[in-house]
UniProtKB/TrEMBL annotation:
<feature type="region of interest" description="Disordered">
    <location>
        <begin position="679"/>
        <end position="819"/>
    </location>
</feature>
<feature type="compositionally biased region" description="Basic and acidic residues">
    <location>
        <begin position="689"/>
        <end position="707"/>
    </location>
</feature>
<feature type="compositionally biased region" description="Acidic residues">
    <location>
        <begin position="756"/>
        <end position="810"/>
    </location>
</feature>
<keyword id="KW-0813">Transport</keyword>
<dbReference type="InterPro" id="IPR002553">
    <property type="entry name" value="Clathrin/coatomer_adapt-like_N"/>
</dbReference>
<dbReference type="GO" id="GO:0030123">
    <property type="term" value="C:AP-3 adaptor complex"/>
</dbReference>
<feature type="region of interest" description="Disordered">
    <location>
        <begin position="544"/>
        <end position="594"/>
    </location>
</feature>
<dbReference type="Pfam" id="PF01602">
    <property type="entry name" value="Adaptin_N"/>
</dbReference>
<feature type="compositionally biased region" description="Basic and acidic residues">
    <location>
        <begin position="724"/>
        <end position="734"/>
    </location>
</feature>
<dbReference type="InterPro" id="IPR026739">
    <property type="entry name" value="AP_beta"/>
</dbReference>
<feature type="domain" description="Clathrin/coatomer adaptor adaptin-like N-terminal">
    <location>
        <begin position="28"/>
        <end position="627"/>
    </location>
</feature>
<dbReference type="GO" id="GO:0016192">
    <property type="term" value="P:vesicle-mediated transport"/>
</dbReference>
<dbReference type="GO" id="GO:0006886">
    <property type="term" value="P:intracellular protein transport"/>
</dbReference>
<keyword id="KW-0472">Membrane</keyword>
<dbReference type="InterPro" id="IPR011989">
    <property type="entry name" value="ARM-like"/>
</dbReference>
<keyword id="KW-0653">Protein transport</keyword>
<protein>
    <recommendedName>
        <fullName>Clathrin/coatomer adaptor adaptin-like N-terminal domain-containing protein</fullName>
    </recommendedName>
</protein>
Length: 819
């Protein structure tokens, strides 16, 4: 009957809650009514009042006046009421620190509650109250939580350690001792929380990890996702600092001699160096392999980071490529993050993604931030693909470069074709160039401009092989209308005008452009002015001989008639050229004013002098000053005809190469600053061979013995439990001592119980006293032995006499009976 009534009450409560939720959001209640609900003796009314107060808190309404009425319900036996009170306390403890301190005693009492959820919640709230005065109380609560029987409470203690450290950094020595205990906890979720606290409090104290390294790796698979992320991040740093890079030389195949001898007479080692993995490092890599099937994308990226930075040339790295690509099937935001990390891996190992090229083809519904990264991945893997795959990628890029209303996609596709051309062989580069030349006749001005920009970069890589290409582009000046495209073609004509001076078309192109100079855009006018200056400089260099700007003074006439000079004069030696004075030369002929090149140059100067563009007028004055003296063209040739460096079109993510895989700075890029976002830490370098910590530090048995000797964390003495002392004593005794048998003995002694082991220390003093008393009494015993032996002999003689007399009496009596 009681069970039925309780079920009826629960059903009624559920019905009322459903009805209240059906009515919609909580209605506004007056402060008096709220206080009445909070002061009520009914649990339902108190719970309703607390819900309204919490809802007002999250709606940024003032709820501090209800602090006394809420805090007095902290001792309520209801777990739901306690949770709401604790939430309210966390929000208002800083605003009312004195009132919050009144509830500390009640929270401390909750640490001894029978319910582990209540104890964990009390520890969580106590550490969350950001009042610096209670840091010692929080530290004591963490100490009690570390020794709690419930792993749920120990996990809460691990999460409370960073809060206590932020509250008061001076408590670090105590917190390190607690961390050392929690890192060795047998429960995997407690160890995961301890690792998270370790990474926040003291990530550089790797000496705390040595004794727990192997146990943490064994628990890695069973940890929760957040614990796995923290453990993988910590183990990546730990491996860099504790395991040096090791290599060994492997003999190459096919090094047999002509007669089948394997050795070489030269004494040189023939082979290649391959990396070796430390056994403990390989244990980590094997333990992380099952995590590649995790449902959390961050865990998959963390495993890939571990393989990339710890064993990039091992077979483990290839196992992480497929799971990384599978993240592209997730939501768009996860796709974007996954692609940033895939691009980062491609910059280091692009050949690993060749088999997954089709997964990076653009889809119709891909947003811009996704298809940009996909195009970048295609260009990175392009040099490592086969012939068929390269054709597929180029066909894909050609399709999107034709333009379908998306100018950004057209621009990126054309640039991708250019990156594919510069990173491949000559045959593939010529195919890419043909694809781009087809686009210059398109009606899309953006497509033509981008295509010509990429063509310009490709021609600059090998100018001599693309002379006909420049002529073909110059013929399209009549049809090209894009200002940027026309400027690119004019620049190419002027840049390669001196490749073949006899067959140069630069002067003819300048003559045609001069007719419509006034109708050109500003970008085209600037390039026409530059073209006129280059053509004029080439004309001056061809029509006058090269002359040194600092002629050497003539040698004395006596030296010119020396016998050594006469001997070498006919042989063409270096002495003849240096000692024989040059013949007097007449001044070089000035260029003819009737030649069309000077006329065109002066005409362009005159047109540009009165143009409305400031930049064009400034460039005109610069060219006029450089070429003011036609006989001195050295400076003008240096500025205008200097060889240009071969242009490189790097990948857009090249500037993100330095960021660690899986970090937020990798996604943000340059917007996060020069060194990444605040709090970003780069991976440390590999430790040098010989400077790594000793391997025995990671031995769990050694770490246990160190704890027994009293060496605690941070130099503090550790209380050794009785069970550990018994185990140590049991292992320290030899077999003969345990059995109690000598060298030739075979008997066994009864096994000692726990009480006997514990009574040994107490009974040790008494046994010593007994031994002394025994030694003192040995002399007295020796004296009394002789006396006792004499008395025994006398007694035996008397007994013999009595027996003889008894025998005589018996014989006489027998004789009388016979008579």
């Amino acid at each position: 009957m009681t069970d039925l009534s309780s079920r009826v009450v629960i059903a009624r409560d559920l019905t009322l809650d459903a009805a209240a939720a059906r009515r919609g959001p909580l209605r506004n209640t007056s402060p008096a009514q709220l206080k009445k609900l909070l002061d009520s003796r009914t649990e339902r009314d108190v719970l309703e009042g607390l819900r309204k107060v919490i809802s007002m808190t999250y709606r940024a309404q003032p709820t501090l006046p209800y602090f006394p009425a809420v805090i007095k319900n902290i001792a309520s036996p209801s777990l739901e009421v306690k949770k709401l009170v604790y939430i309210y306390l966390l929000h208002h403890a800083e605003q009312a620190p004195e009132e919050a301190l009144l509830s500390i005693n009640t929270i401390q009492k909750a640490l001894s509650d029978q319910n582990p959820q209540v104890r964990a919640l009390a520890l969580r709230i106590m550490s969350g109250i950001r009042v610096p005065v209670i840091h010692q109380i929080v530290s004591i609560g963490i100490k009690r939580g570390c020794a709690d029987m419930s792993p749920y409470v120990r996990k809460a203690a691990a999460f409370a350690i960073p809060k206590c450290y932020r509250l008061e950094p001076s408590t670090l020595p105590q917190l390190l001792e607690y961390l050392g205990v929690l890192l060795g906890d047998k429960q995997y979720y407690v160890a995961g929380a301890a690792v998270s606290a370790f990474m926040e409090v003291c990530p550089d104290r790797i000496d705390l990890i040595h004794p727990h390294y192997r146990s943490l790796i064994r628990k890695l698979v069973d940890m929760d996702e957040w614990g796995q992320l923290a453990t993988l991040r910590m183990m990546t740093v730990y491996a860099r600092r504790c395991f040096p890079q090791q290599t060994r030389r492997v003999k190459k195949e096919g090094t047999m001699g002509f007669y089948g001898d394997e050795g070489t007479d030269s004494g040189e080692e023939v082979g290649e160096e391959v990396s070796m993995l430390d056994p403990d490092l390989e244990l980590l890599l094997k333990a992380a392999r099952p995590l590649l099937q995790s449902r959390n994308s961050a865990v998959v990226v963390a495993v890939a980071r571990c393989y990339l930075y710890l064993a990039p040339s091992s077979p483990y790295f290839s196992l992480a490529v497929g799971p990384l690509v599978s993240l592209l099937r997730s939501a768009q935001d996860i796709q974007q993050i996954a692609l940033y990390n895939i691009v980062q891996v491609c910059l280091a190992r692009p050949e690993a993604f060749v088999a997954y090229t089709t997964h990076f083809l653009i889809r119709a519904l891909d947003p811009p931030q996704v298809w940009r990264l996909k195009l970048e991945v295609l260009t990175l893997v392009f040099p490592h693909c086969g012939r068929e795959t390269k054709g597929l990628i180029l066909s894909e890029l050609e399709h999107f470069s034709k333009g379908h209303g998306n100018d950004a996609l057209v621009r990126e596709s054309v640039r991708s074709i250019g990156r594919c051309a510069q990173s491949s062989d000559a045959r593939t580069a010529s195919r890419c160039l043909r694809l781009l030349l087809k686009q210059i006749t398109s009606a899309n001005s953006n497509l033509v401009a981008e295509a010509l920009e990429v063509i310009r970069l490709l021609i600059m890589r090998d100018p001599a092989a693309h002379a006909q290409t420049v002529i073909r582009l110059a013929k399209n000046l009549d049809t090209v209308t894009s200002p940027q495209a026309r400027a690119s073609i004019i620049w190419l004509v002027g840049e390669f005008a001196g490749v073949e001076p006899d067959n140069s078309i630069a002067a003819d192109v300048l003559r045609i452009l001069a007719k419509g100079f006034a109708d050109e855009s500003e970008a085209a006018k600037l390039q026409i002015m530059l073209l006129a200056a280059k053509v004029y400089v080439h004309h001056l260099n061809l029509t006058q001989p090269t002359r040194s700007s600092h002629p050497s003074p003539p040698e004395p006439e006596a030296a010119s008639h020396s016998p050594v000079a006469d001997e070498d004069h006919g042989d063409g030696g270096f002495r003849a050229s240096s000692t024989t004075p040059p013949p007097p030369s007449s001044p070089p002929p000035l260029p003819s004013k009737d030649h069309p090149v000077p006329i065109l140059y002066r005409y362009i100067l005159l047109l540009a002098r009165y143009d409305t563009s400031y930049d064009l007028r400034d460039r005109t004055r610069l060219c006029r000053a450089l070429l003011a003296v036609p006989t001195s063209t050295e400076l003008a040739s240096l500025l205008l005809l200097a060889p240009k460096p071969v242009p490189q079109q790097p990948s857009p993510s090249e500037r993100r190469r330095g960021f660690v895989l899986g970090s937020a700075s990798l996604v943000v890029g340059d917007e996060g600053g020069v060194g990444g976002l605040k709090g970003y830490d780069d991976l440390p370098g590999w430790v040098r061979a010989g400077e790594e910590p000793e391997k025995r530090l990671r031995d769990e048995r050694d770490s246990r013995s160190r704890g027994m000797d009293g060496g605690g964390v941070g130099g503090a003495e550790r209380v050794v439990p009785a069970g550990e002392r018994l185990d140590r004593a049991d292992k320290g005794r030899t077999g003969a001592d345990v059995l109690g048998v000598g060298l030739g003995g075979t008997a066994s002694v009864k096994e000692k119980t726990l009480d006997d082991w514990l009574d040994e220390d107490e009974g040790g003093g008494e046994e010593d006293k007994d031994e002394e008393s025994e030694e003192g009494s040995t002399e007295e015993e020796d004296d009394t032995e002789e006396e006792s032996s004499g008395e025994e002999e006398e007694e035996e003689e008397e007994e013999e006499d009595m027996s003889e007399s008894e025998d005589d009496e018996g014989n006489g009596e027998r004789d009388r009976l016979v008579k």
